[in-house]
Amino acid sequence: MKKALMALLLLTLLGSGLTQIVYAAEQKDTEDYMPSLITKTPLEGRMLAIKIIRKTIGTIQQDPEIKQAVRKKYEDDPQLLMYAAELVAIEFKTIAIANNYWREVR
User: For 49-68, what is the mean pLDDT?
Assistant: First the structure.
């Protein structure tokens, strides 16, 4: 039920102009923090997944005070931490697939 509510909230935000916010932020931030999904090791892949999530959240929510307030909520709600970990796992899966699960050592 919570996942359905979160998905609905995300769709509502996307429909209400979040796309313009993300586009504007992308225009300002020219750093290419993700030139490739290919990494040498699974640990590098996991670190890239965390970085992708952090950059995504930073692009969506640019107000540092609001970000700090949300971090305080995470401290008190382990379920929110689990959702964050789930997002990292989803990104990590994408990176693992791109790396053919690191079967071919480079």
Answer: 91
Report in angstroms the alpha-carbon separations of 66 from 55, 57, 72, 81: 15, 11, 10, 17
| Helices and strands per DSSP (H, E), number in the chain | 5, 0
Residue 37 tokens, joined: 């999904």
Do both 50 and 80 map to the same domain?
yes
**34/52 Cα distance (integer angstroms):** 8
Q: Residue 51 is which amino acid?
A: K
Whether residues 8 and 53 share a domain: the answer is no
Residues 24 and 38 in one domain: no
- Residue 86 banded pLDDT, cuts 50, 70, 90: very high
Q: Can you give the residue range of the structural domain that contains 12? A: 1-30
